[in-house]
């Protein structure tokens, strides 16, 4: 396997000017003040807001990169904690780059890659995930054969055997977690109603590798990417649609240049189907909802308008904006594998997001990412909140007669 089959390899040293020129202005600590309506919601860096030491903000991690490069500092447990509590949500880069043209998120990603390459990265908490991926080809450690059962359950084409125009890449969470099966069924219902010639890969679909890339293990990631690209291209499909925002981000940023098919997130596809008249929402809703922008879908791919257009197409539904939205959205608490590594920390971030939903007086927090759905539900349970979390596909499917 080629070392740079996916995105061209970059090294932390190539960003020396970024971490050397960071002036610790602290713009990365929160949102642009002119875009914040309420001071309560100014802070936006999950780890910095929680731990409050400079090392847990992007500005501090830039200094950690600089000091390590010049051998002014040794790697300690505290250093690793500061590195792996980053949720890689990209809020720091959203604030910093337009003003100073510095890439703090990319520096943090490459610092993790350096950690793995030099053998001091990854933590004992990461071992179960790595073992699952190595032994089962999926993050949850489930038998891949379970994916084949979905073909019959969904009454859908097996894309590894039958020609289809559109390939649906399900992802690990939606494939294996019972609580998320409603979303999977809603997705297939909507695609069929839109007249889409769709199929899935069943057991031949592997994890997209996003968790590995987030942890900095690019070699292991590329093993999954290489095989997935080969299997996707072999279907002859014209495009691939992902259910998970992490899959969408990885395929767009890493796979796309090496694939024959075009990747899109399902909200992009469904929004276009509604606009073209292939789908029509008719059943009225009385809910007051807000769209939670997944970091990978929003800040990474700039998919902001399509999900909102889907919600606006549902008659009777009232949509409001959260205080922190679009480029200023707060992470759900599950980004960068930090919520999986430090569950208590992830839950605290989720509870903060649910508090924000309560503040905006909504009934339902709507999103389209399994990581967000799971963590936000934890925040609801933790706060004993009356707010609900729902996938945008199940909400729309009900309006077009799916249930």
End-to-end Cα distance, whole Å, is 46 Å
| The first-level CATH class name of the largest domain | Alpha Beta
What is the annotated CATH architecture of the largest domain? 3-Layer(aba) Sandwich
- How many structural domains does the protein architecture include? 3
What is the strand arrangement across the widest sheet?
1-3-2-4-5
Largest sheet: 5 strands, parallel
Count of helix runs: 19
Number of strands: 9
The overall pLDDT, averaged over residues, is 95
CATH fold title of the largest domain: Rossmann fold
Estimated structural class = alpha/beta
Give the fraction of residues assigned to helices.
40-55%
Low-confidence stretches: none
Q: How does the overall form come out from the CA principal axes?
A: globular
């Amino acid at each position: 396997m080629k070392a740079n089959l996916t995105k061209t390899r970059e090294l932390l040293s190539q960003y020396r000017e970024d971490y050397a020129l960071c002036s610790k202005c602290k713009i990365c600590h929160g949102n642009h003040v002119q875009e914040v309506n309420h001071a309560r919601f100014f802070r936006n860096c999950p780890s910095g807001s929680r731990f409050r030491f400079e090392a847990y903000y992007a500005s501090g991690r830039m200094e950690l990169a600089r000091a390590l490069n010049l051998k002014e500092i040794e790697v300690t447990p505290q250093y690793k904690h500061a590195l792996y509590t980053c949720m890689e949500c990209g809020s720091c880069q959203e604030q910093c780059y337009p003003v100073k043209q510095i890439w703090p998120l990319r520096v943090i990603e490459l610092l993790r890659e350096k950690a793995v390459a030099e053998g001091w990265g990854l933590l004992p908490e990461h071992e179960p995930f790595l073992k699952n991926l190595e032994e089962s080809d999926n993050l949850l450690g489930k038998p891949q054969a379970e994916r084949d059962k979905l073909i019959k359950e969904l009454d859908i084409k097996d894309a590894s055997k039958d020609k289809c125009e559109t390939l649906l890449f399900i992802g690990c969470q939606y494939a294996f977690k019972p609580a998320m099966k409603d979303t999977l069924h809603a997705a297939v219902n909507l695609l069929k109603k839109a007249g889409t010639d769709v199929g899935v890969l069943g057991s031949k679909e592997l994890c997209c590798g996003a968790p590995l890339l987030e942890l900095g293990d690019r070699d292991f990631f590329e093993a999954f990417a290489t095989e997935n690209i080969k299997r996707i291209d072999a279907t002859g499909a014209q495009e691939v649609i992902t259910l998970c925002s992490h899959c969408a981000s990885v395929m767009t940023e890493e796979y796309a240049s090496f694939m024959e098919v075009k990747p899109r997130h399902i909200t992009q596809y469904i929004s276009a189907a509604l606009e073209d008249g292939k789908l029509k929402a008719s059943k009225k809703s009385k809910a007051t909802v807000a769209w939670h922008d997944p970091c990978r879908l929003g800040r990474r791919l700039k998919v902001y308008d399509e999900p909102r257009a889907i919600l606006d197409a549902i008659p009777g539904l009232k949509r409001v904006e959260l205080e922190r939205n679009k480029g200023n959205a707060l992470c759900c608490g599950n980004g960068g594998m930090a919520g999986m590594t430090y569950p208590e920390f992830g839950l605290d971030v989720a509870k903060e997001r649910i508090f924000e939903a309560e503040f905006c007086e909504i009934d339902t927090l709507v999103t389209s990412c399994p990581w967000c759905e799971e963590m936000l539900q934890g925040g609801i349970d933790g706060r004993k909140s009356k707010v609900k979390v729902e996938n945008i596909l199940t909400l729309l499917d009900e309006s077009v007669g799916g249930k």
